Amino acid sequence: QVQLQESGPGLVKPSETLSLTCTVSGGSISSYYWNWIRQSAGKGLEWIGRIYSSGSTNYNPSLKSRVTMSIDTSKNQFSLKLNSVTAADTAVYYCARDEFWFLNWGQGTLVTVSS
Amino acid sequence: EIVLTQSPATLSLSPGERATLSCRASQSVYSYLAWYQQKLGQAPRLLIYGASNRATGIPARFSSSGSGTDFTLTISSLEPEDFAVYYCQQRSSWPWTFGQGTKVEIK
Question: With 90 as the cut, is the pLDDT of residue A59 above it?
Answer without folding.
Answer: yes
